[in-house]
Amino acid sequence: MTTTYISPELFRFFRELKENNDRDWFEANKKRYETHVKEPLLRFISDFGVRLAEISPHYIADARTNGGSLFRIYRDVRFSKDKSPYKTAAGLQFRHESGKDVHAPGFYLHLEPDGVFAGVGIWQPDTQAVNKIRDAIIAVPDHWQRAISDEAFRSSFELSGESLKRPPKGYDADHPYIEDLKRKDFIGAASFSETDACDPAFIDRYARACQDAAPFMEFLTRAVGLAW
To answer: Does domain 8-71+87-223 have CATH number 3.30.360?
Structure first.
């Protein structure tokens, strides 16, 4: 039996929410959110867990209603000039089992109208984590090179994120991997279309993309001192 997790109704809901981002509209359309966004994505998370365990047993697909892999739709507006109460995209994050305690890499899926992508890696790691990654690049540069030049990874993902303008303090400006040592984020992104996401086989395609990123994720996971 084929299971459909993501439908055009998900993207239609978020398009309309973007134009009507207020509590009255959301309360009137909350059933749509539950039916077309929350419930099917929790099923996606649960079913993806089997595939994720084949990539690494230390990464978690948590299908709990709250506090799991599905991001809350409610925005934290306390320190934002934008007081819109709701996110206009769905986000799924599959974290390392130690992810709540340390800065750790993760697998991510972003579902937004005209903006569907898979993300892998570690975004804005703290100083300790980013220095561990830089030190690992220096200590085992051949491992890093294999991770970022892996054919499957390169065919699916593009490295992105912010970088320092100057070499980080304490690192050789002439190091052959200085551009990677300057990275503030160690992330890769793979883009998909809404049509891709609505295909019943998308869960398999997403799983293959995560598998393609395994060498990259393994390097980062081990670099920050966690089990792969």
So the answer is: no
